[in-house]
Amino acid sequence: GQSLEQPSEVTAVEGAIVQINCTYQTSGFYGLSWYQQHDGGAPTFLSYNALDGLEETGRFSSFLSRSDSYGYLLLQELQMKDSASYFCAVINQAGTALIFGKGTTLSVSS
Amino acid sequence: ETGVTQTPRHLVMGMTNKKSLKCEQHLGHNAMYWYKQSAKKPLELMFVYNFKEQTENNSVPSRFSPECPNSSHLFLHLHTLQPEDSALYLCASSQDLLAGEGQYFGPGTRLTVL
C-alpha cells in the first residue's frame, strides 16, 4: 500500500522560516508533490520533485531524498497569507492519480 | 481562477434525492478526477478519466456514478446518499494521466446529506 506522514500542525511568526516534513511509503515511486489549500478553497499546486535535491520557487522550496523516502517543503519569509493547509502527495502505483497526506495546518501570526 | 469550474458550490439533499455535480475545465487537459474531502481526513481519490475513458474507480459505492461525455466535462451523479457522504467534492484536471506534475482543482461542491 501507499501512505504518507506529515505533521498535523505547525505554528510560526511572520518573517520566519518553516519546514514541513513528509515521509512516504509506496510500492512504486514517481515523485513527490506539494499542494496548498486555504480554508474554504481548492488545493493549488506548489511543486513537484521527481529527483533528489532541492527545487526553489520564490519563497518556497521543496526537497526530496528518494533513498530516505522523505521530502520537505520549506517556506521562507513567512507572511500571514501563508496560513493554510499543506499536503504532500505521491502518484499511486497505477500511475493514474495522486495519494495525499492528511495535511499540515500552518498558522502564521504577527 | 484555476480554469476548472464546479457547480453547484453548495448542495443540500435528502437521502432519497437524486442530484448531479458538474465540473468543466477550460485548460485543454486530457485527464479529469473526482476527489472527496471530509473533515480531518486526507483527500480521497474517487474516479479518474483519461480521454473520456474511466481508468480508475477507487472502490467507490455505486450510489456515486460518474459520467464524462468529453474531455472538458465531468459529472458525478448522486442517488440515495447517506449522511456520511457529506463532504467537499473536488474536481481536478491534468494535462496527462501521470498527474505528479500538477493537477488543477476546482473550488469544490460542499455537499450536505440530511
In brief, what are we looking at here?
The complex is a heterodimer of chains A (110) and B (114). Chain A has 110 residues and is mainly beta.
One letter per element, helices H and strands E, the order of chain A comes to: EEEEEEEEEEE
Most residues in contact, chain pair and counts? A-B, 26 and 26 residues
End-to-end C-alpha gap of chain A: 41 Å
Q: Order of SSEs of chain B, N→C?
A: EEEEEEEEEEE
Question: Gyration radius of chain A, to the nearest Å?
Answer: 13 Å
Shape of chain B: globular
Counted by DSSP, the helix tally of chain B is: 0
Mean pLDDT of chain B: 91
Poorly predicted regions of chain A are: none
Number of helices of chain A: 0
State the distance separating the first and last CA atoms of chain B.
Answer: 31 Å
Detailed description of the structure:
The complex is a heterodimer of chains A (110) and B (114). Chain A is an all-beta fold and 110 residues long. Chain A is built from no helices and eleven strands. Chain A has strands at residues 3-5, 9-13, 18-25, 32-37, 44-49, 53-57, 60-65, 70-75, 84-91, 98-100, 104-109. By secondary structure, chain B is mainly β. Chain B is globular. The model of chain B has no long low-confidence stretch (mean pLDDT 91).
